[in-house]
Amino acid sequence: MTNDKVKAVFPGTFDLVTLGHIDILKRGLALFDSIVIAVLHNPAKQNAMFSVEERIEILCEVTRNIPNVEVQAYNGLLAEFAYEHKINFILRGLRNETDASYELPMAQNNRIISKGQKLETIMLATDPSYIQLSSSLVREIASYASENFDLNTLNQLLPSVVIDKIEEKIRR
Ligand code: ADP
Hints:
By secondary structure, this protein is an alpha/beta fold. Helix content is 39%, strand content 18%.
C-alpha cells in the first residue's frame, strides 16, 4: 500500500466560474485527494470578460472554504503542466455530445503525449441542473443586461462572489 496522494488537474478557461464548475470540482474531490484548478491563459481569446488574474482571484475566493484545492494559471500544453506538477489525472465535466466529441480526442491525445505515467482523463457527467449552463451563456446575459436588471436572478447558476464581480464590472 502506498501513501501517495492522488492529485488531479481541473483545467479550463473559467471566464466566468459557474456552479456547474463548482459541482464538478466538489465531486472530483470525492475521487482525488487534491485538485489544482488550472486557468488557461489564452491571450488570443478576444471576448474575455475577466482577465486571468481576475479569474484566479475569483476562483480563490469561491473555493476559499473548500479544502485541498489550489488555483494556478497555465499556458501551453496541459500534458506538460501535469508532468511538471506530478499529476496523472485530468478532471473534466461533460454536458452533452458536443462536449464529448471535443473531450474524447483531447483525452486520447493527452494520454499519448504524456511523459512518464500515462495521463488519464476522468469525465464526470454534469448534474442535470447545470446541463444548459455555460460560461459563454452567462457572459452573453451579462453583456446585454441593462442597469435595471437584477443580477441576483443568476444565483441558481453562479456563486455569489461571481455575481458581485459581474455587478462591479457592468455597473462601472
Ligand atoms: P474550456 O474552455 O476548457 O471548456 P470551461 O471553463 O468552459 O473551459 O470549462 C472547464 C470544464 O468545466 C470543462 O470540462 C467543461 O466541460 C466543464 N464545464 C463547463 N460548464 C459546465 C457545467 N455547466 N456543468 C459541468 N461541467 C461544466
